[in-house]
Fold each of these.
Amino acid sequence: IYMFVYILFAMLGSYTLSKRGLRFTVILAATLNAVSTWIRFCGAYFIHQSPAKFIVVLLGQGVSSLTNAFVLQVPPSVAVSWFGAHERAKATAIGILFNQAGIAVGFMLSPALAKQPSDIPSLLLVQASMCTGIFLVLLPIFEDHPPRPPSTASIQRRSPPFISSLKDVIKNPSYVLLVLSFGIVIGVFYGISTLLDQILQPYGYDSEDSGLFGMLIVIAGIVGSIIAGILGDKFHKYKEMIIVSFACATICFVWFALQ
């Protein structure tokens, strides 16, 4: 349900960011994230009938999935609004890095805290507390723009109408090709991440091992994000970097599939 809901509402996330601004989008995403974790906890802890428990937990997962449609739009916008032109690639990479770091923490934390089904409510309570804490930190301090513009370009920047921008990018063959390529790579990554436990079980690995493998996959991506951000700001060879990255990813996926 997680990625399916994202596909349905990704355009809504982009539209909200374009029309309502960075602060509104970030606070909305943090609110939905906190609410979703408490729904899941309440479903797992307070409801004891199996069908109702599943429905409530699934509802919480759906709300969390909706959060994804808003939060994944944020790193490039933060980079444009808060950083100068020579810093934006690194800023975007760092924003994506922390998203991946959260996934790594999830891979590590979940099997450590939930060793048996009765431990799941405790895990969900920890998640709810963390997400609520993030919301409470963001609410008073996060703003659309810094007190001083990072560059002259950021002062003069005007976002074109959302529908007009959407039509322009759909008509751009290079952009469509890039979206399809990126979508395939991300789809394979999330597919492996979701099914990693089932993939590794026949080879004698348990849930904790799967969590460790998942964390290592994400850590490798974090290192790659840092390197890509530094190289992008220094050389501005974005097309070449994309080709090399996709070629390396393809080789690694093929090697993984053949093992």
Amino acid sequence: PIYNEYKSYLRMAVHFAVYNDDGASAWCVGAVLATLRQLSPNFHVTTLTSGQITPELLSRYTCVIFPGGRDVPYQRKLSGRKNTWIREFVEGGGRYLGLCAGGYYACSEIEFLTGNKSMEIKEKRELGFFKGCARGPVYPGFDYESDKGARIVTLTKGTIDGEHVYYNGGCCFLPYEGAEFTVLRHYSSDNDNYTDNNTNIISDDYNYTDNNGNNNISNVSSPNNHTNENNHQYVHNNSFVQKTEDNLKTAIVGIRVGSGIVVLSGVHPEIGTSDLKDSSMHNVSSKLDFERIEIFKEIMQFLNLTL
């Protein structure tokens, strides 16, 4: 009877495990934990190290979250069977939420700071939940040793424009041809005054479903088509194309993987005004705390996790 009561408790509660090992930013981990606890008393949250990633332990959780930080140490710690176990967890009905570094990590490949010989990353990744490339930073100025590239950016969804959220070094998501995913948010064109060559990215054969279930197709031609070593194509153009809802850079995506669900974000909806390191950001928008929580709530809804 006690075991049956415990099984019933597991069904009622939502159990999160936030990855907290090499590469994970302690600041981001703390913000994720605080946000989840703020969202719902039904959310039970704990942290998880690489050594705790086993099929048995993963089965105790509803959702694993990979926070901001650095993706390369994630790969170094989890390459091989641990990534296989994470993928099997999701395919079997689990949930995965990747925020910034955790979003990069769950794509088929990464292009980070291309052209910067000391910091460039152009590598494949094993999880491959998003069939495509995570390319960033979307906006210039990123620096591992400071927050000078951090800023509050705005996101758009359909006719809703101008939601404020924290950004620092995150990616946009460039799908391979035929990739299936749902766009939850785009980066707003209002952010385009932060341009450099790394920001001017759109996708060829950009087929996706928006969050209202509508199919949107934007076919864009460019003389600078980039083909990676797997012969997947996407467009890299050194000048901004005309911005429409169909070809704004993608900030947050959702993917169905087997029986599970994945959400990947290039921005940080877990970061509120009280978390901001740079005091000059506190006055950017009084709407930040409300709007970033609304974004996080929608992520939870897409993951089918009850608030």
Amino acid sequence: MGVISLQNFIFTKFPESLAYTEFKTSSDKKKKLILVDGWSCIKAVYGSHMDFICGGQWQEFRASIRRFVDTFQQVGCDLVVFFTGTVDSARRSEWAERQGEAKDAVNTVMHGIRQRGQPPDRKNFIPNETHPQVLRQVLLSCHVKVISTPGATDRAMVQYALENNAYGILANDSDYVLLNAPRYFSLHHLRFSGNNITTMEVNREKVSELADLPQSLLPLLSYLVKSQFSEFHKVLANNQEKTETKNDLEVLIQNVLAFIRELPASFKEEGLTDENLDELVHKVSQSVSCVLPLDVNLRHSQLSNIFVIGTPRGQR
């Protein structure tokens, strides 16, 4: 399951964690630093009036990007946009899953065109390989700082935000909530009206409260719902009572939440520390390894890495 599905779960099950936000020029005229996930941003700047099937409307695309940057600058926001460089080994299964989802979306679009002579809803919009390159070029021409990360952008953006006192992160990925971004603004809810910019901020503390999960354990939720743990998910499903709901993704997340809640009380009281991290990783790795023929040391390494930023240990 991808991070988008987890984000949708947060939006639908924990609506109280969303707060309406309007970007405004501060009274002291101080600039706000906003970090933007470049790949997620493409859909936001590819205007609804543009044909996303045939494409080719590069002039309109460039103009839309410039308006995006100009509007933020007019309300006192400086943008830094991040793009993923390469897909690291730990993310290959997730990347493969997303490619499969993109292929399914293409099939849905083509089926709609064949059946009705017109494309389906824009929710099936898929950027092509040229869109990120054009976005980079136009951003640079607008004097916006662009950063390419050697691996996934999420941890790099959170680390950059913490080190540079950023106002927040604008993206479409629940990992930024679970990895403890300073503030997370939803690109999905981003709206422009003249020079007014509004969106929804996801409150990490509220998500923690509604999920009945300590903030220090939220990164573990983000990691264990990923598709590479599909066999682990089956074990959890077999251990839980059957429910009437037909939403498999919702059941999966609820099962993982229940698993994490059953961790020893010391983790909930102390959070993740240098002293108990190894114990937690061993417990999770042992559970996974009993159903997956994978190397425990690799699991230990991958699980350890997700806590580098998401816990007090990573913020030292």
